[in-house]
Each structure stands twice: as structure tokens, then as C-alpha cells.
Design goal:
heterodimer; A: about 400 residues; alpha+beta; ten-stranded mixed beta sheet; four-stranded antiparallel beta sheet; 6 helices; 24 strands; globular; B: about 140 residues; Alpha-Beta Plaits; 2 domains; two-stranded antiparallel ribbon; 3 helices; about 20% helix; about 35% strand
């Protein structure tokens, strides 16, 4: 059987759509089989809640009197520098930006207690944030200095715009060296002391639509507690990686660039985070609905942890030196038992992405759809697939 | 008069290969009961123990530890989880030397067992949203 997105939206409007989370649908398919489950379920909700460094927000704070051109000068929000290379009062705040005087890793490992992600969290929580800016002065923008406070409710625009989120699968990080290392995958203990992973596995959006058959440019999503959209494929989108027989990538593959109104978002779903010895970031909550249009896409949506594999990578040598070595593959089911086997050693596992929060997002999105508050969208254009031939290029250094 | 205290010792790298416990027993006549030890080559060491003896020897023993660069903390501090900040990601689970963080099944929520906690503080900086706090 097949159905269309407009048929599903009709059911959503009438409050009759049948929605299951990507976790619940696994049980439904096991119990009823693909054919019956496809007939019964209209939408599967997927979600993830993990640190996503290529996140940020742009703002237009309105014009001061007299006017100041922040572009060409330096502007700070709570001491965090923003990028001002736009028109007079537009600027972009990145999640990993940190104060100019942060000691960084001068005393290793640095703490990175406050950065751009934390400013975003505070703004979304409704707090006032200090804005300090300097300009060089022009005839039309004579002012040189400004020191004030901004609040999300008073500024013109505040838009979350993340150039790479929702990685389709990710490395499992380990440390083969004999000393502790501090990475974006957390603290990794020496001699295979632990293994950290970062994916919601069977709940993760792009793992449930591995060939991007329903998720595309323009897809409406849950973003940071509000409504957002897929703007484009994310940076480093790499659909051509090694895949299993079920089509699911075994390495980091597709990514999404997403956009949405920061003013509607909530601090529970945009959390400033600090990675010891690495830097600061923003943990982002994202939920993506997958319309069930055919048995084929139901089969993909019902893939479970046992059938999703990730590569184990050494972050003491292979990752920093960009060596392709993978120490082995493990399933998310194995990772979630708390122990995996690497090179014959039993290694305890930890996660950086929150599965309980992903479950909560998938449930919230399900609730929105069941209540008729959230309609599905047809993609405006598809994301580049395997056939696009896109590859993830290294930087070719030349003189 | 005898004293008995539960203390947490942090050893800098330079001390890890020294027979410190031997000196506490042999030179200061102290009794000790090791509750938790975590020392690896080229790394910081952590030792939680109950140390007892007469007051004068106890004080001398503690001074010896301080002089060679071991930091000493009473075990009366405790670690508290700020539940409003915890996202239940699980970054703490493998960092904790005593297994005080447990992943509940099937919810995968992280349970903090403060009875198992030896207040080493390793979880504080390893927690990305900084949900773990030291209470003095």
C-alpha cells in the first residue's frame, strides 16, 4: 500500500493520524509485520538530543539612537564575541565561541565553562544578556560605542541556524594511548579505559530514513522546543559511506542544516555544554517526523539498535592524524549493554547524546501531530543521495 | 587520644610511584583501611581511606602527606546532582571510578547512587552541562 503526505495531513487535521515514535514502531512491526504496520501507522517520530558544535544564531538587535555600525568593529554578548561582517546591526553568534580572555587550554585540560551555546541557552530562558559593541564611525552611523542589555522579546529577529546537525551515525571513540585524552567525544581514559558514542541509534532521524526518501529541504521539524525547518544538507554531508545490507550507514554520513525562530524555543532543548580540554558547544534537541508512505520506508523506519553499526576509532592517534583505521564495528544494542569488545578487551561504554531526552522529544512531536498542531511538509527538494557522488574531501594544503 | 577520619587523597603524578602508605604505617604508626584506590602510571592517583591513630601521630602523618604534595580532603563533602541541568546523556558513567552512575533500563536514565560516591570530583568537569556540584 502507499499513501501521500497530503492524505496524512488530512488525517492530522481531523485528529485521526496514527503516530508512533521510532522506538514504539519497532515493537509494532515485530508484532504485526511490515504490511499491517504500514497500513496502520501514518507517521513515525524520530529525535536526537546531542552536542552539535556547528550551531549558532543570527540576530538583528534594532538601531540605537544615534546609530552605530557594529560591522567592522567588535561586538560581544556576555563577553562572547559575535561575527559582525554583515549590515549595521545583524550579527551571528556561534555555539563554540568563547570569551577573548578565556584561558582555553593554557592550563590543560581547560574547563570552557561559558561560551556561545550558553548565551543561546540564557537568551532562550528569557534572561537579559549584555551587548557591548564598538564601531569605527561613519557619516550615517556616527556612534563608536554601545553598552546595553538585550532580551529576546525586544529584538527584531533571533534565528537559530545550524549548519551541521543530526549526524547520520557517528564514531565510537576510544583511546589506545597510555594517558587520558580530552576530546569532543568526552574524557577518554588510557589503554581502552572507556568508549564514548554519540547517537540516539534507533531513534535518530537520519538512521530511520537512510536514503533520505522523506526528509529533504523544507521538512518541518521540532527544533529546540519550537518549530524549525531543514534548510539544506548539512556541511560534511557524505551519503556515499559504507552501508549495511539494510542501507543504514556504518559511519558518519548525512547531515542536516536546520533553521528556526529562536524566540519560540526552550532552554530545556538548547543547552550550553562544556567539554573538558576541548571547548564549549550547544546540545540541541531535534525531532523529525517520517511520513509512512510505503512498506519500504516503514522497513527503514523500524530498523532497531541491533541492526545499526558504528565504527570504533582511536582518538589518540588515528583521529588526530586523519588515519582511516577503524578498530572494529559494534551495534548500538551492544553499546547500550554498557560494554563492548575492542581488540579483545571488554571496554565500558558511555554516551554523549541523551537517549531519554530523545525519547521525550519524539513523544512531544507525536503529541503535537496527534493534536493537529503540527502538519507534515513535502520536501521542496531532496537531499543529495548516494547517486550524487558527493564525497567528504580532506583539506588539500598547498603553498 | 585516638582519632579516626575518612579522607580523600589526591596524589600528583610525582607521588604515584612512592611508597607513601608504607611510610604512614611504618614511620607514623597509623592504621588505615583503604576504601577506594585508583592509581595508574603517569596519572593522578586517588585514594579514599579511613586513617586512625593517636592524635599526635595522625597530625604528623597528615603533615607528611601535605609536605610531599598530596592534597587531602575530608570525606564530609558530598557531590550533588542538579537535576534541572542533568540531561541523562551518560558522559559520567565511565568516568566515575566507583560506578556511582548507573544506566537504568529500559529508560536509559542515569541514576546517581550517592552511597557509592567517594567524592573524588572526577564527574564534575566531565559532565558537559555541568550538572554535578560539590557541596562543602
Amino acid at each position: 500500500m502507499t499513501r501521500t503526505i497530503s492524505e496524512i495531513n488530512e488525517k492530522i487535521r481531523k485528529g485521526q493520524a496514527v503516530v508512533a515514535t521510532a522506538e514504539e514502531v519497532i515493537g509494532i512491526v515485530e508484532k504485526k509485520g511490515i504490511e499491517k504496520a504500514t497500513r496502520e501507522v501514518d507517521v513515525v517520530t524520530t529525535a536526537t538530543f546531542g552536542p552539535m558544535c556547528s550551531s549558532g544564531a543570527y540576530f538583528n538587535v534594532g538601531h540605537a539612537k544615534p546609530r552605530i555600525k557594529l560591522g567592522g568593529g567588535n561586538t560581544y554578548l556576555n563577553d562572547i564575541p559575535v561575527y559582525t561582517g554583515f549590515a549595521a546591526v545583524d550579527f551571528f553568534l556561534g555555539a563554540t565561541a568563547m570569551p577573548d580572555n578565556d584561558p582555553r587550554n593554557r592550563i590543560h585540560p581547560g574547563e570552557f565553562l561559558y561560551g556561545g551555546g550558553h548565551v543561546i541557552e540564557e537568551l532562550v530562558a528569557g534572561k537579559d544578556v549584555s551587548l557591548v559593541g564598538t564601531g569605527y564611525g561613519t557619516d550615517c552611523y556616527p556612534r563608536r560605542k554601545i553598552e546595553t542589555k538585550i532580551n529576546l522579546k525586544n529584538i527584531n529577529e533571533a534565528v537559530l541556524f545550524n549548519m551541521r546537525n543530526v549526524y547520520q551515525n557517528y564514531n565510537v571513540a576510544v583511546n589506545l594511548s597510555d594517558k587520558t585524552i580530552y576530546t569532543y567525544m568526552g574524557v577518554l581514559k588510557p589503554n581502552l579505559g572507556n568508549a564514548n558514542f554519540c547517537s540516539a541509534g534507533q531513534l535518530s532521524p537520519l538512521l530511520k530514513d537512510p536514503y533520505y526518501k522523506t526528509i529533504g529541504i523544507g521538512t518541518r521539524i521540532f527544533l529546540g522546543g519550537g518549530v524549525g525547518y531543514v534548510a539544506w544538507q548539512g556541511t560534511q554531508h557524505n551519503p556515499g559511506v559504507l552501508r549495511g545490507e539494510n542501507g543504514v550507514p556504518k559511519r558518519g554520513a548525512g547531515t542536516l542544516a536546520v533553521i528556526g525562530d529562536l524566540k519560540q524555543m526552550k532552554p530545556e532543548w538548547l543547552r550550553g555544554v562544556s567539554f573538558l580540554g576541548y571547548g564549549c558547544s550547544l546540545t540541541v534537541g531535534i525531532g523529525v517526523p517520517i511520513p509512512i508512505l510505503s512498506e519500504e520506508n516503514m522497513r527503514y523506519a523500524a530498523v532497531k539498535d541491533e541492526d545499526i553499526f558504528a565504527g570504533v576509532v582511536d582518538y589518540s592517534e588515528a583521529y588526530p592524524q586523519r588515519k582511516p583505521d577503524v578498530l572494529g564495528e559494534v551495534s548500538y544494542a551492544q553499546l547500550k549493554t554498557g560494554r563492548i569488545d575492542v581488540k579483545g578487551k571488554e571496554v565500558p561504554t558511555g554516551s554523549l547524546s541523551s537517549y531519554p531526552k530523545a525519547v521525550e522529544i519524539a513523544q512531544t512531536l507525536k503529541d503535537w501531530i496527534q493534536k493537529g498542531q503540527f502538519l507534515l511538509t513535502e520536501p521542496v527538494a531532496p537531499l543529495p543521495g548516494v547517486e550524487s557522488g558527493i564525497t567528504f574531501k580532506p583539506l588539500d594544503e598547498r603553498s | 587520644m585516638t582519632v579516626a577520619k575518612r579522607i580523600v587523597l589526591h596524589f600528583p603524578r610525582s607521588c604515584v610511584d612512592q611508597p607513601i602508605i608504607y611510610h604512614l604505617v611504618k614511620d607514623y604508626g597509623l592504621m588505615l583501611n583503604i576504601l577506594k584506590a585508583s592509581i595508574s602510571p603517569n596519572e593522578e592517583g586517588l585514594l579514599v581511606l579511613e586513617l586512625s591513630g593517636d592524635r599526635e601521630s595522625y597530625e604528623k602523618g597528615v603533615r607528611y602527606l601535605a609536605d610531599i604534595g598530596v592534597s587531602i580532603q575530608p570525606l564530609s563533602r558530598d557531590i550533588n546532582r542538579n537535576d534541572a541541568r542533568c540531561t541523562h546523556c551518560g558522559a559520567c558513567v565511565t568516568v566515575c571510578p566507583t560506578g556511582a552512575f548507573v544506566v537504568e533500563s529500559p529508560s536509559r536514565k542515569i541514576k546517581f547512587l550517592d552511597k557509592k560516591c567517594v567524592v573524588c570530583g572526577l564527574c564534575i568537569r566531565a559532565c558537559p552541562p555541568r550538572a554535578m556540584e560539590m557541596r562543602v
